[in-house]
Amino acid sequence: MDNSVSEAKEKPHDNPVARQRLKAWQPIVTPRKFVIVMALLGALLLSIGAVITSSNASIQEVSERYDNTNGIVTLHITEQMDSPMRFSYSLTNYYQNFRLYVKSRSDWQLADVDGPTDICTPLESFNGIDLYPCGLVANSFFNDTFEASFCPSCNTSECTILGADEWQRTGISWHSDRQTKFNARAVEADETNTGPAGFPIPFPVPPSPGDNEDFIIWMRAAGLPTFRKLYSKVERSFSGGDCIRVNISNNYPVDPFGGTKSIILEEVNWMNGRNSFLGALYIVFGCCAIIASVGFGILQHQNPRKLADPDLIPADARVAA
Q: How far apart are CA 294 and CA 291, in angstroms?
């Protein structure tokens, strides 16, 4: 009696999962199906790429390179630009994705939780004093500042500074970054927030909330050597012939790494800005899928092969079977 009870307990439950009786479907990939699927996939990718490219072409954008300019730089509006817009700065020849650079940070320190700081090497401390925040990423913070004014004409001096409701410096970073990844605290007595760059990093005690978000945006490393980072949201529309005069406090040198600096004003679309690379990527992969479909279709037409043809089994294998 005990043995039968024990055997009953050891048996799996009488359901399709425990008994491994789940229904399954295994598609058989035939040349015909492959050609059809690749053709449909190529058409889908090309359609998405065309939509993205068309959307990018409709975005108005003005930019101006300023490198070592300290003072007024003018953006000339040639066509109607509708809000919302983004004002960004751009750097070239700056490799934020370099492995030593991008790993030199302590996310534990930035979030104010217990964790190692030795991963900030080679910039865990400066002049024998612990850095807060530590690391190459934090201590190479981009510290140029911008203030924009609207001018109804490029030949007039009657310009008005964009107010806080038009020149929005808050809410520009990711909400998850502000809430979870960055938690400011006061600099302790045995720490310093002034590293080799020679200026205090605006974290954790910034002059204003906007400056702190600039630091958060900078800490999200770019994947390519030419990149742009958001500086302000612009909630105002402009007409052709208008001018935006940007007062630049130029603090960040680009000559040491042979780069350039630019300011960019651009409209925002459903993709939150222009992304030419993504559109080109969809088109390239769509073309590759179409080419593969046509190529395999021609190959199958010239050299047809019957699926599961027993004549293709080697003679010795058939005898063995």
A: 5
Strand, coil or helix: 3: helix
- Per residue in 232-242, is it b (16+ CB within 10 Å) or e — as a string? bbbebebeeeb
Cα 171 to chain centroid distance, Å, stands at: 17
d(CA 141, CA 133): 11
Signed CA dihedral, 148, 153, 158, 164: sign only: negative
Q: pLDDT tens-digit profile of 140-174?
A: 999 999 999 999 888 888 899 999 899 999 889 88
Residue 317 has pLDDT above 80, yes or no: no
| Exposure b/e, 249-281, CB count within 10 A at least 16 = b | ebebebeeeebebbbbbbbbeeeebbbeeebee
Q: What phi-psi label fits residue 112: left (phi over 0), alpha (psi between -120 and 50 degrees) or beta? A: left
pLDDT band at 75 (very low <50, low <70, confident <90, very high): very high
Please, what's the largest Cα pairwise distance for the chain? 103
* Residue 303 pLDDT > 60: yes
Output 123-129 pairs: Cβ under 8 A, ≥24 positions apart: 123/195, 123/196, 126/192, 126/194, 126/195, 126/196, 127/192, 129/190, 129/191, 129/192
What's the Cα-to-Cα distance from 168 to each of 91, 145, 147, 163, 165, rounded to whole Å?
22, 14, 11, 8, 6
pLDDT digits (tens, 9 = 90+) for 227-251: 999 999 999 999 988 999 999 999 9
For the whole model, what pTM was predicted? Answer: 0.75
